[in-house]
Specification:
Shape: globular
Helix content: 40-55%
Radius of gyration: 32 Å
Number of helices: 8
Structural class: alpha/beta
CATH topology: Rossmann fold
CATH architecture: 3-Layer(aba) Sandwich
Strand content: 15-25%
Low-confidence stretches: 1-79
């Protein structure tokens, strides 16, 4: 009987040990499965991230391919430029190779809206990647609106605004030649830093542009002008200068750039030109003062829902090609409208198109 009890106890203990071992083994397996599950989840997350990055890269590639395709189609149309209705996404994405830079400058000018006293004004200058002082570059003077200043276009030192980004892409891809872009403050008065200053100071900018800003840029940067501090012929490099602007800057481009300074500038881009822009008949009359100078290109753009500028911008171009022999529709003149308001969706598009039509 005792022997029988001992055998039962031994059997029980062996069973318990086996169960314990089995339980421990199951726990260890579950633990491994849990770790593997976590690793799998982590890997899945990593894979998902990679997939997302891959999709983003694919989308980026597709956008760039679309932009390249658009460009190829443009170039294929018998030398005629097809204006975009929107800026390709790929050309608004910051690129980290072949980037130009923006430098802040100050230049001497005068209080043209006031007493004529001397003062210093700021401007921001885009220099293309690989800028070389031994070369020569075309120059675009880019104007802001009534409530803006020299930074309104997103151009400042260290900035990566859309104008800079678009230029970086266009130049790096060889779609345009390297170009200098100057963004000044369009108020020609001592109170230029005040965005609420008397707007009439905008109308005096032609004096500053001719007498001070252009000579300063020609003196300090590698332009096509043969600058001489004792005086030089600004008209000689007119085919290498352009002017463009938004709203009030669009008015300045038309009224001042084209109608006052045609002898020193030959390309013009007016985006949502402000209500005080000259109407077509007056523009044509002003142009008669420059019988010896042609217009290389005039491009106007406005949004069809722009309640601020559409009527004035349209009045400036309606019938203009019939009123002056300096402009021919489809050759050196183009008026574009598209859905949009008085905002940067239109203005960035305007600059994007203009940057690719000038200096051709």
């Amino acid at each position: 009987m005792k022997k029988y009890l001992v055998i039962l106890m031994i059997t029980f203990l062996v069973g318990c040990t086996a169960c314990g071992a089995k339980t421990q083994q199951e726990d260890e397996v579950q633990g491994i499965e849990s770790v593997e599950s976590e690793e799998t989840s982590g890997q899945q997350a990593a894979d998902a991230t990679e997939d997302a990055e891959g999709e983003a890269q694919s989308a980026d590639t597709e956008d760039k391919a679309a932009a390249e395709s658009d460009t190829q189609e443009t170039e294929a149309e018998a030398g005629e430029w097809t204006f975009f209705d929107k800026v390709p996404v790929a050309d608004t994405m910051i690129t980290y190779k072949g980037c130009g830079k923006i430098v802040e400058i100050t230049y001497p000018t005068k209080d043209y809206y006031g007493d004529g006293s001397e003062l210093m004004k700021p401007a921001n200058v885009y220099l293309p990647y690989g800028y070389d002082e031994t070369k020569q570059y075309d120059v675009i003077y880019l104007m802001h609106g009534i409530g803006g200043n020299e930074r309104e276009w997103g151009m400042w030192t260290g900035g990566d605004g859309k104008v800079k980004t678009m230029l970086d892409h266009l130049i790096a891809d060889g779609r345009i030649e390297p170009v200098i872009v100057v963004a000044p403050n369009g108020r020609s008065g001592a109170d230029f830093a005040n965005t609420n200053a008397d707007y009439n100071a905008f109308y005096e900018f032609g004096k500053e542009l001719r007498n001070d800003l252009i000579p300063y840029i020609d003196a300090n940067y590698a332009t096509y002008a043969e600058y001489d501090e004792n005086g030089y012929d600004l008209t000689a490099a007119r085919d290498h200068r352009a002017m463009a602007g938004l709203s009030m800057g669009g008015m300045q481009t038309t009224n001042i750039g084209m109608c006052e300074c045609l002898d020193i500038i030959s390309y013009f881009g007016a985006f949502s030109a402000a209500p005080t822009t000259y109407p077509a008949a007056q523009i044509a009359e002003k142009l008669e003062s420059f019988p010896e100078y042609d217009i290389n290109y005039y491009y106007g753009l406005c949004g069809t829902e722009d309640t601020t500028a559409l009527s004035s911008a349209r009045a400036a171009v309606t019938g203009l090609t019939d009123k002056t022999d300096k402009l021919t529709d489809g050759e050196n003149f183009y008026w574009q409208t598209r859905s949009g308001g008085h905002d940067f969706n239109i203005w960035y598009l305007g600059f994007y198109n203009f940057a690719q039509i000038v200096f051709k």
